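Researcher: I'd like a structural prediction for the single chain below. Treat it as a standalone chain; there are no partners to consider.
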Amino acid sequence: MSEAPLPVEPAAHRHVRLGYIMAASAATLWAVNGTVSKVILASGTSSIRLTEVRSTGALVGLVLVLLVRDPSRLRVRMRDLPALALFGICGLAFVQWFYFLAIHRLAIGIALLVQYLAPLLVALWARFALHEAVRQRIWLALALGGLGLIVDVGKGGTISTTGLVFCAGAAVTYALYRLLAEHAVADLGALPLLAWGFGFATLFWTVTAPWWSFPAHRVGADVSLLGHLAERHLPIWALMAWMIVPGTIVPFFLIVSALRHLPATRVAIIAMVEPVVATVVAWAWLGESLSSVQLAGGVGGSDGDRARSNCPLERSWHVIFLTCKAGIYCLQRWVTRPIGLGRCTR
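Model: Treating it as a single chain, here is the predicted structure.
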């Protein structure tokens, strides 16, 4: 959940290279956060509680920053509250919850492969609901995404049907998150929009799972980091702190700052590195893997962001992006082949 077209005022003096660095750093932090979250879930923390902690932590951090910088930016019109509530609950709250439910049952790479079909859903919405022209490549992306899942089963892997249902829920709510971020309250600004969104998400989860029933005794327990780091242990509160600050607040600030220096479409392309990096991190940390066809599906999924654009420069960035994905996959195959780590573990 990264590269939504958030409303951001461009910087007076744009620094393109800085924008690229910030967008790539945000995508990397979100990618690592997937594996950290999976370790927390494996400790027995429920998906609802983890989503509640992340939403509340992000709310506190964003509100504190806005109170220090400019408290007036938190003011909203009464007529905007329903749209903000929809953005916070159906967008932020549900997309995180479905994602956590999915990665608890599936490899992170597969979960992100399905979830990142959301840009394609947006492109299909533009084609059939708004009657805008889109590229034919989106059909290839959908086919590759489905073929990737078939390949995983065919080579001996097993895919949880329940996990796929949760992935589909994450994709739909992620698409809704993107549409609402772009059209709901465009004049509010990115940080206030996120603060109010996380506020309504926190309120929703507080009603659903009240804080007075939170299993606080588990937070101080030490848990194994699993996979190749199974011999190392950290307290759950430390992992949650990482999930909230470097895994949520910092990347949101980075992506918002990147949007001040780069066009939204360019930031979207860079931020789509997230599923690739997440797959590599899950492979290196947990021993998970992903097939070449599934990576191709991920590449196609990113085409949804560019399905309504024919800019030659953006096509060039797509070639670079595709080359990076292919290179990462080849490196992974070369490293895992001698020691048999090429299968996805669940």
